[in-house]
Amino acid sequence: MPSRRTHFKSRHGCVQCKAQRVKCDESRPTCSRCQRRGKICQYNIGLAATSPEYGGSPPSQHQISIPSTSRKFDAFISFPTQSTLSSEHASPQSELPSQELELMHHYATSTYITLSNGTAQHNVWQHIVPQEALQHAFLMHGILAVSALHLAHLRPSYSQYYTDVSMHHYTSAVEQFRPILEEITPTNAAAVFIFSSLLACVSFAIPQELPETAAVSFTPLDILQKMIDIFTLERGVQTVLEASWTWVKDGSIKPLMVHIPTEPENDLRGDEEQALKSLESRIRNENKSEDLKIEALNSLRLLRAIHPFHALPIERMNFIMAWPVLVSSKFFTAICERQPFAIAILGYYGAVLHELMNVWWVGDKGLRLVMACTDLLGPRWDESMRWAKCRVGLCGNPTSRTDGKI
C-alpha cells in the first residue's frame, strides 16, 4: 500500500483566512486574499500583545518586522522619514483585536478632536470618517496609524510601542492606497480625500515621535530637508485632492472644505507688517533674477493672506497648513535649491507655523524651521530674520543654533 504524501499544515495564516477556513499565503503585513477583498489583515503571534493601557507589556521589538516604507508612491509622493524607518521595527499584533479596539476608541474619543476645526468638522471626523473606514481598509489603517501616533505623544513611556503600532498600520495603509490612486471613483473619492488629509498629519507627526531620533542632533540642512520632504508630501496630496474634488465638494465631508484666501484682505499688525515690507523691499532691491523676484513677492503675498491674523480661530490650522501647497512650483524649487530669499521667506513661514506649536502633530517644527533658516542664511541676514526669531522666542539668544530634534 503506497504511503500517503506528507502534508504540512501551516498554523501561521492570518486570522481572517483561518475564520473562513481557506489557505492563506501568509504575506506580510497583508496577505493576498485580504488585499484582494480590501480587508484588514491580522496575524496571531503566539502570545497576546496587550497594550500598556490595559496593564500588559509592549511586545518584543523583534517578533515580526515591518517592511520598509522606503518605497515611493509611483509618480506621486514619497514618505518623508524613509531613513528613520527600518526593518527592525516590530509589527505589533494582537491575538484578539483588542489593540485595534483601543486605537479606534482613542480616535473616536480624543484624536478626532485634534484633527478638526469646529463642531461641523467634529461630526465628520468622529462619525463620517469611521463609517468610510469600514468600507475602505486603507482608510481604517490610516485612522489607526494616526491614533497610535497620538498615543505615542501622550504616553512617552510607551512611545516606542505605539510608534511601532503606527508604522505597521501606516505600511498597510500605503500598500493598499497606492493602487487606488490609479482609479479614483465617486465610490472611493471621499475615503481618498480623507486619507490624503491624514497623510499630512502623519508626515508632520512621525519625525518627532520616532524614539530613535530622540538623541540625534540635526544640522540646519537636516531640518530643512525634513521640512522639504513634508511639504513635498503635502503638495503631492493636493494633486489627489484635486482629482477627487468634484465628487466630494457637496458630499458628507463638505465641512472639511475650507476656503483658503490667496489675496490679503488688509495689513497685518504693526511689527509684522513692518517686517514683511522690509523683506519685500530687500527682495526688490537685491534680487537679480526678475522671475525669482516675482515668485518671492507672490509667496510673501500668500503668506500675508493665510496669516492667522486674518483667520477665525476655527480656520487657523487650515490657513497655516495651506501655504506650502499654494506657493508656485518655481518658488518651491528655489527653496529646494536653498536660494537665500526663498529660505528667508520660509523662515518667516516657520514663525507663522509656530502658532500651531500646541497642536500635537506639529509641535516645535516652526521654531526649528526658523532656527535652521537663520543658521543657513548667516549673519548677513540677521536683521531681516529678527522678526521671525522674536516671534518664536529667540530674540534674547541671537547666537542660538539648531541643536535638537525636529
Features:
mainly alpha; 406 residues
Short description:
By secondary structure, the protein is mostly helical. It has 15 helices and no strands.
Descriptive overview:
With 406 residues, the protein is mainly α. It is 55% helix and 0% strand. It has 15 helices and no strands. Helix 3 packs antiparallel against helix 4, helix 5 runs antiparallel to helix 6 and helix 10 packs parallel to helix 13. The longest helix is centred in the middle third of the chain and has 29 residues. It is elongated, with a radius of gyration of 23 Å. The relative contact order is 0.09. The C terminus is likely disordered.
Q: What would the principal axes of the Cα set say about the shape?
A: elongated
Can you give the mean pLDDT? Answer: 78
Annotation, overall tally of beta strands: 0
In sequence order, what are the helices and strands, one letter per element?
HHHHHHHHHHHHHHH
Q: How much of the polypeptide forms β-strand, as a percent range?
A: under 5%
User: What is the distance, rounded to the nearest whole angstrom, between the alpha carbons of the first and last residues?
Assistant: 71 Å
The unreliable regions are 45-50, 59-90, 209-215, 397-406
Largest sheet: none
**What level of helicity do the residues show?**
55-70%
Number of alpha- plus pi-helical segments: 15
Structural class, please? mainly alpha
Nearest-angstrom radius of gyration?
23 Å
